[in-house]
């Protein structure tokens, strides 16, 4: 058995060696998390959202048995933390991976390690703790193995009605080309959306890198919904293996145009296309906690619940603390900011 620890920046040829081995592991699970892929980590690095990406692999008799992809992110005052999203993939050699992660975090002087698990896992030196998550713990995940009739019947009547409204108003849905013009059209509409619904957005340069990534890897596109050739909604979807992710969205704030219900038609058209490409799951991503009254996601949760209220909850975050004083200062700052937002 051997453990390999590699930073992609220091070993650019390493990704080519093991990409096929990772694919073999993913072939044994039903839900493949995009956040545990080399390509995603590279995209984050190109867009300056992470400082480094680390990859720890365990081989046994030349077979890749398990791995973890780690994001090193800046958190506060020239300090960094490790983030591991949607892991572990399986339970093989978790003790070894845990030990190697902790050793590496100490070498890199990370304040803490945060894991947002895909499955319940028992890590000996990590403790459950609520801190900011990159992926919300609640989602709606549709089973695309159902027929279109079954999916439609599971919707709230208002959802089905809104799709028909968009169709009757001749709203068109089309994939866009990856151009600077289309990027700007999307970002301008997204900026208007965030003013209306009060949420934060990433930079224009991030979205350029993001779109370059999904187009270069052919894992789906930016879609526009148009009424009389005017864009009234713009959405970005990702399809990776058997899952389609509803990732980013923007829509007009003009009530005279919102009445065309373009956002509902985009969702339905993409669900149909995902089914045609043999996707098994359609992941809406990010809905508010059921007990939450002030979540910034309440407005979009209501939209998603019109399709289905069958909510999936992912396991709680787990944290290992390296630097206790710095961590608790950061934790206090984070909780204070959350408190002020809810006043």
Walk me through the structure.
- With 343 residues, the chain is α+β, with helices and mostly antiparallel strands.
- The protein has 2 domains: 2-135 and 315-341, Aminopeptidase; 138-313, Gcn5-related N-acetyltransferase (GNAT) (Aminopeptidase, 3-Layer(aba) Sandwich).
- The protein is 38% helix and 26% strand.
- The chain is built from 11 helices and 14 strands.
- The strands form 2 sheets. Strands 1-2-3-4-5-14-6 form a 7-stranded mixed sheet, with helices on both faces. A 7-stranded mixed sheet has the order 8-9-10-11-12-7-13.
- β9 and β10 (230-240) form a beta hairpin.
- α2 (38-46) packs antiparallel against α7, α5 (157-168) crosses α9 (262-276) and α6 packs across α7 (204-216).
- The radius of gyration is 21 Å and the shape is globular.
- The relative contact order is 0.15.
- The model has no long low-confidence stretch (mean pLDDT 84).
Give a short summary of the structure.
With 343 residues, the protein is α+β, with helices and mostly antiparallel strands. It has helices spanning 14-26, 38-46, 94-107, 148-154, 157-168, 180-197, 204-216, 255-258, 262-276, 298-305, 324-341; strands at residues 2-7, 52-60, 63-76, 79-85, 112-116, 127-128, 138-143, 172-175, 222-227, 230-240, 243-251, 281-283, 311-313, 318-321. It has 2 domains: 2-135 and 315-341, Gcn5-related N-acetyltransferase (GNAT) (Aminopeptidase, 3-Layer(aba) Sandwich); 138-313, Gcn5-related N-acetyltransferase (GNAT) (Aminopeptidase).
């Amino acid at each position: 058995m051997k453990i390999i620890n590699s930073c992609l920046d220091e070993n650019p040829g390493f990704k080519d060696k093991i990409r096929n081995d990772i694919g073999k592991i993913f072939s044994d699970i039903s839900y493949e998390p995009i956040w545990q892929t080399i390509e995603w980590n590279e995209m984050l690095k190109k867009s300056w959202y992470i400082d480094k990406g680390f990859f720890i692999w365990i081989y046994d008799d030349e077979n890749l048995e398990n791995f973890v992809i780690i994001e090193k992110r800046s958190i506060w005052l020239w300090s960094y933390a490790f983030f591991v999203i949607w892991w572990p993939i399986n339970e093989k050699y978790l003790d070894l991976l845990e030990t190697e992660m902790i050793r590496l975090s100490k070498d890199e002087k990370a304040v803490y390690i945060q894991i947002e698990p895909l499955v319940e896992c028992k890590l000996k030196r990590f403790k459950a703790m609520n801190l900011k998550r990159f992926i919300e713990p609640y989602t709606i995940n549709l089973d695309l193995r159902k027929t279109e009739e079954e999916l439609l019947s599971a919707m709230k009547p208002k959802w089905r009605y809104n799709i028909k409204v968009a169709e009757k108003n001749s709203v068109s849905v089309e994939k866009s080309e990856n151009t600077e013009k289309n990027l700007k059209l999307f970002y301008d509409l997204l900026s208007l959306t965030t003013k209306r619904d009060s949420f934060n957005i990433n930079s224009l340069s991030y979205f350029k890198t993001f779109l370059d990534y999904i187009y270069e890897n052919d894992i789906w596109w930016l879609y526009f919904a148009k009424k009389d050739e005017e864009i009234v909604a713009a959405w970005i979807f990702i399809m990776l293996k058997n899952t389609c992710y509803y990732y980013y969205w923007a829509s007009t704030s003009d009530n005279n145009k919102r009445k065309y219900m373009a956002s509902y038609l985009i969702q339905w058209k993409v669900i149909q296309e995902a089914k045609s490409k043999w996707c098994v799951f359609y992941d809406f991503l990010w809905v508010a906690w059921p007990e939450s009254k002030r979540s910034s996601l309440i407005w979009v949760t209501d939209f998603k619940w019109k399709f289905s209220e069958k909510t999936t909850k992912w396991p709680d975050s787990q944290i290992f603390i390296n630097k206790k004083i710095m961590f608790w200062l950061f934790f206090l700052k984070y909780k204070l900011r959350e408190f002020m937002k809810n006043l």
